[in-house]
Amino acid sequence: MNRENIMQAAQIHLVVATLIMTVTFTAGFTLPGGFDNDINTFHAFVVTDAIAFTSSAVAVFTFFVMAASVISVTELPVVMRIYKFATFLQLVAMSAVVIAFVTGMYATSNLLQNLQVQGKCIRS
């Protein structure tokens, strides 16, 4: 792999990492409902969302460092190491986003189940 191919791939990864960072930032302010009943689910959501946000932010920063650096062809292994590190952080962020989504859905579905039970009690 040459430097140009790495930089093209890094541009695509930068867009993905930025999108993940945006989504996790927004999710941190719009917390899922229903966490009063299961505080552990809420904690899992907050922790995984924070991990995803932090990993994405560091990946974005790393990709910016790659783009801004003027590294010669002889230092291609350094660029490759930076690229692999940023890609690893992005994979961590994507995994954490999935877990945050699942825990958020779980917290919300508990709320929905409680509302259904309360609705049935009110109708009776």
From TrEMBL:
Pfam families linked to this entry: PGG
Highest taxon listed in the record's lineage: Eukaryota
Coiled coil start-end: none
Entry's Gene Ontology cellular component terms: plasma membrane
Keywords (A to Z) from UniProt: ANK repeat, Membrane, Repeat, Transmembrane, Transmembrane helix
Main subcellular location of this protein, as a coarse class: membrane
Keyword check for Repeat: yes
Residue stretches spanning the membrane: 12-31, 51-73, 85-107
Location of this chain's protein in the cell: Membrane
UniProt membrane topology term: Multi-pass membrane protein
Domain PGG: 4-107
Protein name listed in UniProt: PGG domain-containing protein
Lineage of the organism: Eukaryota, Viridiplantae, Streptophyta, Embryophyta, Tracheophyta
